[in-house]
# Entry
Amino acid sequence: MTRRDILLSSLAAVPAPSGRKVRLGGPVFQKPEDPRELAREHRKLGYGAAYCPVVKSGDTARLRAIEAGFAAEDVVLAEVGVWVNLLEADAAKRKVNIQKVTDGLVVADETGTRCCVDIVGSYNPKYWDGPDPRNVTQACFDAAVENARAIIDAVKPKRAKFSYEMMGWTVPDSPDSYLKLIRAVDRKGFGVHIDVCNIISSPARFYNNAAVIRECFQKLGQWILSCHAKDLEWVKEMNLHFLEVVPGRGGIDYRAYLEAVAGLPQGAPLMLEHLKTAEEYAEGAAYIRKTGAAAGLSFA
# Structure
């Protein structure tokens, strides 16, 4: 299917919008230096949300320009992603990584971005995001709490919050795990980042993912800051293998996901990620818009 076919199919007859809106966002492939022009590139793709552009925490003029430029085009800055290992075994490297995330939270707060997000990290000696038996221990949970507190206390954010992305092989790996983490961190500057696909780790969760989605939003809704959008295909092998694919090509119940996002009183951007080409992003966005429109939702 060509991009034109995808876009035309997304305009098929659908119910009238209910007034509930979703802010869909994703990467852009044209990246002008001027922040307002960059925000306009997002609008050209129909996006009402964006990943915060890369900027240093001390570059005050650039930080202000980013906030003003995206606000002028009504594009919400969803998240500052800082993907480093906060459980790095080497103490000096771990300190550097914690500082990188701290700087990311400063950027989020200064630009009005909803959150700064990282994963809890891993004790795996070879891969910063790899499996390790220590990732599912109380020691890992305690380290996640300590790191979150240190980052938040160093910044004392006024607008943005710090959050951990949900993962299938470490905390938080479920709504209840996230609730436990929220209570333990005990900081107003801590919030929730939702990535439903990351916690689909069993046949029961895969086939009942609509229930998993609803549980996440029912239990965590008041703290949700930003969400990721992708899909999962079950690849036939002797053991479980869920492959990330373009939204619409897999088994995630996007009607349930979109209705849950649209039901948040504070709103939360839904951000496409991990796709390879502009065409794949266009296909995923078109599917999400068509699914949302069929549910009576609209997009900001």
